[in-house]
Amino acid sequence: MAVKQPLLHTAGLTIGYRSGKNPAKVIAGPLNLDLYAGQLICLLGPNGCGKSTLLRTVSGLQQAVGGSIELEGKNLAKLKPAEIARLISLVLTDNVRSGNLDVYSLISLGRYPYSGWLGILSQQDKEAIDRAITATDTVAFLGRKLDSLSDGECQKVMLARAMAQDTPLIILDEPTAHLDLPSRIQLMRLLHQLAKDTNKAILISTHELDLALQVADQIWLMSSGGSLAAGLPEELVLNGSFQQAFDKDGIDFDINTGTFHIHTSGRKSISVTGEGPAAFWTRKALTRIGYALGPGVDTDEQVLVTEIEGVASWTYKKQGLTLSFDQLKELLTVL
Amino acid sequence: MMRKLNYSPLAGLFSCVLVFLLLTSSCKQAPAGKKHTSAKTGSAEIKYAKGFTIDYYDSYKLISIYSGIGTQRDTAQYVLLPAGAKAPEGYQKAQLIQIPVKKLVAMASTHVAQADFAGVANEIVGLGSFKYITSPVVRKNIAAGKVKDVGVDGTMNDEVLISMRPGLVIVMGNPDARLSKYETLSAAGVPVMLNSEWLETTPLGRAEWVKVMAALTNTEKLVNAKFDVIEKEYKKLAAIGRSAKTKPSIISGMPFKGTWNVPDGDSYMAEFFRDAGVSYKWINVKGKGSLPLNFETVAPEALKADFWLNPGYVDSKQDIQALDGRYADFKPFKSGNIFNFNKRVNDLGSNDYWESGAVNPQLILGDLIKILHPELLPDHQLVYYKQLN
Amino acid sequence: MNKIKILVLLSLLVIAFLLDVALGSVHIPVKEVIKVLFTPDSVNESWIYIVEKIRLPKALTAIIVGCGLSVSGLQMQTLFRNPLAGPSVLGITAGASLGVALVMLSAGSITSLYTIKELGISGSWLIIIASSLGAALIMVIIVSISSSLKDNVIVLIVGVMIGNITLSIISIWQYFSSPELIKDYLMWTFGSLGGVTGNQLVILATVVFAGLVISFLSSKLLDALLLGDNYARSMGLTVQRARLLIVLSTSVLAGGITAFCGPIGFIGIAVPHLARALFNTSNHRILIPACCLVGTVLMLICDIVAQLPGSQTVLPINVITALVGSPVVIWIIAGPTKLRGF
What we know:
The complex is a heterotrimer. Chain A has helices at about 50-60, 80-85, 105-110, 125-135, 150-165, 180-200, 210-215, 235-240, 240-245, 275-290, 330-335; strands at about 10-15, 25-35, 40-45, 65-70, 75, 90, 170-175, 200-205, 220, 230, 250-255, 260, 270-275, 290-295, 300-310, 310-320, 320-325. Chain A is α/β, with parallel strands linked by helices. Chain B contains 13 helices and 16 strands. Chain C has one domain (about 1-320): ABC transporter involved in vitamin B12 uptake, BtuC (Orthogonal Bundle), CATH 1.10.3470.10. In chain C, helix 1 packs parallel to helix 14. Classes of the chains: A alpha/beta, B alpha/beta, C mainly alpha. At the A-C interface, helix 2 and strand 6 of A face helix 10 and helix 11 of C.
């Protein structure tokens, strides 16, 4: 099987800041990364570890401190902005609410690298714009002005612009920030679909660990020390990289459930028997109020959850005392 | 250093004490019911100037300088005392000046000219600027280091002035200026007088301000005699001008972009025009002296005028054309009848028209009549005016 | 829809132009005015002079200035993404004023006048050249500073500060000058469309035309800059070069106009908003010609008002542009039609 050429390849890349004649401040590196077409890659990591810097460096907005970056085999440092523009398009957190822009004009700006001298759009340009609009489902807002859109709608429009730029790689910096939950899910789902349908590579940085684990084809996990672990999301979980990356912040990642534990282990022990959603959520409730879930029936307190035709009931046993409840709330009151 | 310490606070204190003593002593001596006043012995004959009067009393002279017109008239009073005389009572607001004035500081060219006229130019020890000076006496003194630059009015160097201990500082007054502006100086014992000869609307009236200088320097006899000569000559010329058979049309001034400021009927220049015998469109317009007119209002007159007078800071027809090519279409430009009063400009760039011209209106009138009616004054040589080529 | 707006504006332009030429301090019947315009022949010679040599050049100047200032204001607003930016924001007009102050406030000295005469420059050309040099000086300073600055906001602030420094220097000069010279300089700062005739008009027209062409050709990069530097760069724009080009064309427009007409304010800030609101677009390919149209009409209207038709005096154009323009913008932005500008 022929080895696919990576769209983006970095070798020994170190990123950071250089101010004047002072020695550069290295934030992360050396990094050796590969990015392939058709994949959605999520860049995760705690705040301040350098996610934005990495994205800015890789897209040419910022100079690398050391190492090399290659786009489709070409050295990024030697490419002109116009050439980079045909390879990478961006969706940033920059505020673009000014300028009296309407949605169609904004999306058509994505054709900048291709349109004529005065910015006149050709038939080809218009088709690319239409494709982008369809793909991002933004047909409904075409005539509206930017400042009349909600945050979620605005993000879709910015994505449409990036799509219109027709680049093999799209980079998004925290696209789900400021969005409400439904919009966040919508956007992540859209990005995953786009990578599949258009064979583009999409690289996003995000804090949505839960969603990222579900949709990413690759995860780049950055830690505050400046190192980066890359791989399948599931592998990164199973080999402990996840826990390691977030361990320093005192956060507990449960590899069984794929969630982070907010609550520290409770002192009292209780066991919950039962299956199905009611039992699952009962366990969560008990954890919240301070219990540690014990292994079996040997604990002092036990709860049995039974579901008959969708109706749940709880039985609580403690040292001979048995109580029954129809509502979880009542059980919790007693405890 | 020592002089400074002695002068300012003590002199002020001394005059306060003196006035107080005078008041109290006069109260004791006055006969019951009658206030003691110095007897008025006469007034100076002021025929043309409207801005001042001079009254003579037994032991002092009183100059009243008026600013504003009608009911809003403000009077500034100056009491002129010979050395050693007691200050009269009843003049709390007046400025006391010791005469004859020695060590004079002049802020304007006209004051220098007045001093020259009275023969006391040698008394000038301070000037507002060394740039605008023509008088040979003063220039010699400047070269000899006897005259100090005290700064233009508004940015006068109070310290330099006070340390000079001048007998009088003459500044340009205007209807809005108050003596209070110069309080630092008066408080330090430096007398300040606000002259407003430039507010006079007649040439003889403006020239007559030499009589103020005369009173200040006790040169009344000389000055009055000289002024009488000038007055006679002027009136003779005015009679010739007014009775001229033809009245050539004139325009005056230089426009700036779209606005042409022309002298109106109440201006100093207009009086010259009347006495020189011209046809001037705005000769009867009442105003503040200058009318800001639209270029296109004046242009039709300029296209037909016989003469163009006083075109400002230009020295040749080329200068005029460089300012705006359209001026070349004016009739006086085409005929070459452009006359400017910059004939007597010295190497410093100072125009004597503003200096000696202020006290020699008969020469200016003579120039104008010679220009406008050359046949009426065949022997007159132009003094201040010259033709621009 | 746009076509109708263009037609209306064009007709307004023609009407305003005719009115500007027909109205003034001297009453000339409209029939005569038209006669002079199309067949220079009239009974009254001074009327020909007034229409041909005074009013016509002034109206043409108004058109040129209206275009030039509006487009340079538009560029500044786009480059700095700031609705209050205008052509003077980089200190270019302050630089022009500095050059003029240098000549006018030291003009009292005959020696300086003579030395300049040796060079063969005198009169109004002296003012024009001094003004252009002053503007060019500031432009060079701004360009050299901006090439080492990545952030546009910093360039904007630097420009404003340089403008302030320049104006302070002028104030110091004025403080030490005589009243007549100050008055002359003050007259210059009031701005005037009136003095530009003959060769000067040709040169002004050429300079402004050049500036407008450069601006129009920059439409595409101006559009990209609307999204900010990062996006613009990601779309292929070399931001430093683009900024240089925009600063250059703005300097040529603003500096050139100030050199011939003195500093004329407000038009550069107001007209882009009006154009954006009227044509409801952010596309510079449309906005630049739109600014020219709207700016021209507005400038002609201001000139007509400044004439105080029928009266013998004339008001400074700067006063009128502010008085006429401000309420218009307020009405557009906050009024019943709620056409949002920015």
